[in-house]
Amino acid sequence: MSKDAVDSAQAVAPAQAAATPADAGDAGYSKDLKARHINMIAIGGAIGTGLLLGAGGRLHNAGPALALAYLVCGVFAFFVVRALGELVLYRPSSGSFVSYAREFLGEKGAYVAGWMYFLNWSTTGIADITAIALYTHYWSFFTSIPQWVLALIALAVVLAVNLISVKIFGEMEFWFAIIKVATIVGFMLVSIFLLATQHKVGGHTPGLSVITDHGGIFPHGLMPVVLVMQGVIFAYAALELVGVAAGETAEPEKIVPRAVNSIMWRVGLFYVGSVVLLALLLPGSVYSADESPFVTVLSKIGVPAAGDVMNLVVLTAAMSSLNSGLYSTGRILRSMAMAGSAPKFTAKMSRSQVPYGGILLTCAVCVLGVGLNYLMPSQAFEIVLNVASLGIISTWVIIMICHMVFVRRAREGLVTRPHFQLKFSPVTEIATIAFLLVCLGMMWNDPDVGRKTILLIPVIAVMLVAGWFGVRRRVSANADKELAQLTK
């Protein structure tokens, strides 16, 4: 329902309107997520395979300047989460940015936001189960099991966890995040020890000389650093989960600001700090896209079973991502279904207050991914990961547009901004949107995958338009029904 319609209804019957949830999709949820869950969901969103696995290939291409790329992208990612955090304190909602798009951009905006986010997480889910299967094949015990079977087992396990209760989801994410944080902290302590003792790593003495003797901070020039940003920005995908999870916590006004503010120093410590240490230990040319950079370092100093330990950690990261995807899309789809822009069954809630309809729909798309693993096991991961990139960029752009409209209405006196604010609006939002669109445009420089991904945009646009014509009558009927309830 649009903001204008709500305003009109409140003018007629303010008492009834005040008793009605701003988003019908918010009704029926438990408030079982605690502060530690939200904080770890924020950390889990900031640490994933983008760092644990993907940093190796990026270090090889960009050199030590990769740390700058992570820092720049991290700043813009923080702006997005800060903007979302302000909207959450204005009105907590499990529908998150879809609910805010409905209020500030209308039903069409909510429709586009929701289905692009679903595209992001459903394709990311396919990438996750593919990654889980690939990581599991690392151990000889599992090599005889087909990749698609392992992918199906992983999906079944995470689906079961999500369907039980939100508390179980929160606990699972809490421990997944603990594993990732403990791994990175452990590696950083080892790295600092190696630097302090000048212990040789693969024949190289750690320190600034590793950088200066191998081309400096920009060994291949500035352009590789610019190009690598298109991949780095996706390493921060899932930070927006804080906004979705806030709808199921009892005190979002206390928990969300702390979680959002902590993201910045975590980015600086875990991402930038880790990459700086990696660059000081070994030349960028030694790292590879085929191996975790942490495994590269640890294996060079003779740490036994380094590959096994890190493989277990990246497996955990992929399971965490899949877990988060099913959780968030279940909530988003329910918000959309209550407005009429998603299938009716995705609005269904279980006795344990879990929106199982939306979760099962995302799972169904992931099952198609199991088929993709069966038909194209070597290409499945790369195909879906690039499609997911379109979803996350559109989601972040919509969040910033919603925030701009929100601030404009606050200046007009229509809404009140909370104390927790994104500063320097609208400059911050415009700069972030421009940066995200540039990252999207840079995909054109990759003719094999990136260019084909950009060419999918018109196809997705046509599908969205066709879908809107299919649901617009139901959306309109739902809006009229809601308005009638508010005014009677």
Automatic annotation (TrEMBL):
It is found in: Cell membrane. The chain crosses the membrane at residues 38-55, 67-89, 110-135, 147-165, 177-197, 217-246, 267-289, 309-333, 354-377, 383-406, 427-444, 450-471. It comes from the Bacteria. PROSITE patterns: AMINO_ACID_PERMEASE_1. Residues 37-476 form the Amino acid permease/ SLC12A domain. It is a multi-pass membrane protein. Keywords: Amino-acid transport, Cell membrane, Membrane, Transmembrane, Transmembrane helix, Transport. The keyword RNA-binding does not apply. The keyword Cell membrane applies. Its main location: membrane. Belongs to the amino acid-polyamine-organocation (APC) superfamily. Amino acid transporter (AAT) (TC 2.A.3.1) family. This is Amino acid permease.
